[in-house]
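Progress note, sequence design subtask.
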């Protein structure tokens, strides 16, 4: 409850601070904010900070993939535990029952690890997303409009004697 309250105060303060500064929310910053809201790092990339944008995107999606894999392992572990419980209840052999019990303990330990890992990386994902939005609002300057990919293609089409040649040159600039 306290975490939710602190997070709502932080977000409210962030948005009030953003609205109070007219220079802070120009049209490109608003567009960058919308981009970063849906794809973390896209706003930084849009404003010209490509490496920072790639970092936010890769960090967010990397932690999100870890969260999804942990959730999948958690579901699989629960199914395995249920299956072992049924086998344990239906066994008549003491040695087999002891073996199943040991397997159940190991699966339960794995489930607990996956539960903690899932919650940790879910928190990391949300944290990176929130930091990404705060960064695009306050700490990412606008490098100006232009080609967001930093590439100016030059296409030349030439033809001679029924042969056509198309060449493209890409010049990278800062």
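Output:
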């Amino acid at each position: 409850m306290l975490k939710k309250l602190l997070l709502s105060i932080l977000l409210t303060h962030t948005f009030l601070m953003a609205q109070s500064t007219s220079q802070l929310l120009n049209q490109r910053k608003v567009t960058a904010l919308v981009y970063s809201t849906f794809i973390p790092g896209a706003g930084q990339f849009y404003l010209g900070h490509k490496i920072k944008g790639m970092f936010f995107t890769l960090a967010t999606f990397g932690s999100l993939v870890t969260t999804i894999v942990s959730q999948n392992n958690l579901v699989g572990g629960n199914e395995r535990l249920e299956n072992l419980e049924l086998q344990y209840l239906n066994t008549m052999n003491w040695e087999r029952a002891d073996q199943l019990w040991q397997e159940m303990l190991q699966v339960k330990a794995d489930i607990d690890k996956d539960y903690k890992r899932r919650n940790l990386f879910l928190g990391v994902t949300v944290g990176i997303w929130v930091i990404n939005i705060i960064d695009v609002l306050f700490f990412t300057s606008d490098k100006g409009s232009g080609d967001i990919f930093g590439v100016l293609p030059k296409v030349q089409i030439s033809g001679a004697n029924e042969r056509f040649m198309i060449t493209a040159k890409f010049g990278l600039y800062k």
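The longest helix spans residues 94-139. Work on this subtask will continue into the next period as scheduled.
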